[in-house]
Write a structure and sequence with these properties.
By secondary structure, this protein is mainly α. It contains six helices and no strands.
Length: 140
């Protein structure tokens, strides 16, 4: 009986610790800095962006991998808008970050429908968003 109570107490502590960590992660994600968003979406050869670009070149995308990458975009792309532009005006920043979030949403829709053409178009639009934003707002 004593071991049952100890086991239940331990399980409750693990559950509480996990929920607390999830809340901290969620709060950190909501306030993701530009640097965090760029790293989450674009850093490394296995980044979500590189996964999407490679899949767009393939005849038949691996929808599971594409879905995973799309979900990361859906989570982090909108977070850019909460930041201040490091260079340039706020109106331009708002317009460009909104466009990226919309492209991420279009990507998610296309992936959910397994729409190859829509997926490729959304992936291309994301790439275009990057260039336009960097030209206007990336520090020298």
């Amino acid at each position: 009986m004593k071991s049952l109570i100890c086991g239940a107490s331990l399980a409750a502590l693990v559950l509480i610790a996990g929920l607390s960590a999830a809340r901290v992660d969620a709060a950190a994600d909501e306030a993701a800095s530009i640097e965090v968003v760029m790293k989450k979406l674009f850093a490394g050869k296995n980044s979500p962006n590189n996964t999407l670009k490679a899949a767009a070149k393939a005849g038949s995308p691996d929808w599971a991998k594409v879905k995973e990458a799309s979900d990361v975009f859906a989570k982090y792309a909108p977070a850019l808008a909460a930041n201040q532009p490091p260079k340039g005006d706020k109106a331009s920043w708002d317009k460009l970050t909104k466009a990226l979030a919309e492209h991420a949403e279009s990507l998610g829709t296309a992936v959910d429908k397994k729409d190859v053409d829509g997926f490729k178009a959304a992936t291309k639009s994301i790439g275009g968003s990057c260039k336009a934003c960097h030209e206007a707002h990336q520090p020298d």
